[in-house]
Design a protein that fits this description.
It is a single chain. The protein is built from 5 helices and 11 strands. It has 250 residues and is of the alpha+beta class. It folds into 2 domains: 17-134 and 236-248, no CATH class; 178-233, no CATH class. The strands form 4 sheets. The chain has a 4-stranded antiparallel β-sheet. A 3-stranded antiparallel β-sheet has the order 8-7-9, covered by helices on one side. Strands 3-4 form a two-stranded antiparallel sheet. The termini are far apart.
C-alpha cells in the first residue's frame, strides 16, 4: 500500500535551538579573538611610539649635550638597592645606592616641546621628533586623566586640528603625547580605573556603593572583558646620575 501521508519539511524546534546555540558559541569565540587581536595591536603601537619618543630624546642628548628638560627642573633623590662597587670592600654585596632621577607624568609637553624646532649649537634648527602617528588631547590644557577626545599631534602642532563639530582647535606649541589604554568605569561613582595592572575593585573611598553596602564594588568579568579605551600620557623618567632615559606606556 502506498504511503500518502504528507512528508515533514523544515527543522524541528529542538534542531533550530541547537543551531542557534552553535552560532552563539562561535560568535562568542570570534569576538574574544577579535578583542585580543585589537589589544595586541594597540599594545604594539603604544610600545613603538614609546620607543620613538625615547630615541628622539637620546638623539637630542647626543646633539645638544644635555637632556631636553624644562627650565628649572629639579631632580628628586631616590634611594635604591644595587650591587656593590667594584674594587671596594663592598664588592659582590648588595648595598644601598642613591640615584638622582626626575620623572614627568602628565606634563610630557614640557619635554616634547624641546624636541620640536630645537636650535643646535651651530645656530641651525632641527626637529628631533616626527609627530606623525602620535595623538594629543583636544583640550588646550589637560589637568584630568584619562581623556576621551584626542587628535593627531602633528595637526595640533600646526594649528590645523578640528574637533568633532569641525571647530578649529587652538594650536599647541608643545603637544602632550598620549597613548590609549584599557580602563573600566565604576557604575556607582563614575571613576575610571586603569586595567594595565590587575584591578578588581573600585578603590574610591567616596564611592556610593561602598557607603551603602559597606564594601568596595567588585568589577564584573564582563566589565573587565570589554574595557573603555581612553588616553593616558607617556611617562618619561630620567636617571640623571647614569644618563639613562626611559619612556613608559603603561
Amino acid at each position: 500500500m502506498k504511503d500518502t501521508s504528507p512528508r515533514r519539511s523544515g527543522f524541528t524546534l529542538i534542531e533550530l535551538l541547537i543551531v542557534v546555540c552553535i552560532i552563539g558559541i562561535l560568535a562568542g569565540l570570534l569576538s574574544t579573538a577579535i578583542l585580543q587581536l585589537t589589544k595586541t595591536a594597540a599594545d604594539k603601537r603604544n610600545k613603538n611610539n614609546a620607543e620613538r619618543l625615547e630615541a628622539a630624546i637620546v638623539e637630542y642628548w647626543h646633539d645638544m649635550g644635555r637632556w631636553p628638560l624644562p627650565k628649572g627642573a629639579k631632580p628628586t633623590l631616590k634611594k635604591g638597592s644595587g650591587e656593590g662597587l667594584r674594587g671596594s670592600e663592598d664588592e659582590g654585596r648588595s648595598v644601598d645606592t642613591f640615584t638622582y632621577s626626575v620623572s614627568y607624568a602628565g606634563d610630557n609637553d614640557l619635554i616634547v616641546g624641546n624636541l620640536l624646532d630645537a636650535v643646535l649649537p651651530d645656530g641651525t634648527k632641527k626637529t628631533f621628533l616626527d609627530l606623525n602617528g602620535f595623538t594629543t588631547p583636544v583640550e588646550p590644557s589637560v589637568t584630568k586623566w584619562p581623556v576621551r577626545d584626542v587628535v593627531d599631534a602633528r595637526l595640533a602642532y600646526r594649528g590645523e586640528a578640528t574637533d568633532d563639530e569641525g571647530k578649529a582647535i587652538p594650536a599647541r606649541k608643545k603637544p602632550v603625547l598620549v597613548y590609549f589604554a584599557p580602563f573600566v568605569k565604576c557604575p556607582h561613582c563614575e571613576t575610571y580605573f586603569s586595567l594595565t595592572g590587575s584591578r578588581d575593585y573600585c578603590t574610591n573611598d567616596d564611592c556610593a556603593y561602598r557607603k551603602q553596602e559597606g564594601k568596595r564594588y567588585r568589577f564584573s568579568r564582563d566589565e573587565k572583558r570589554r574595557p573603555l579605551q581612553l588616553a593616558q600620557p607617556f611617562r618619561i623618567s630620567f636617571d640623571l646620575m647614569n644618563n639613562v632615559v626611559e619612556v613608559h606606556a603603561n
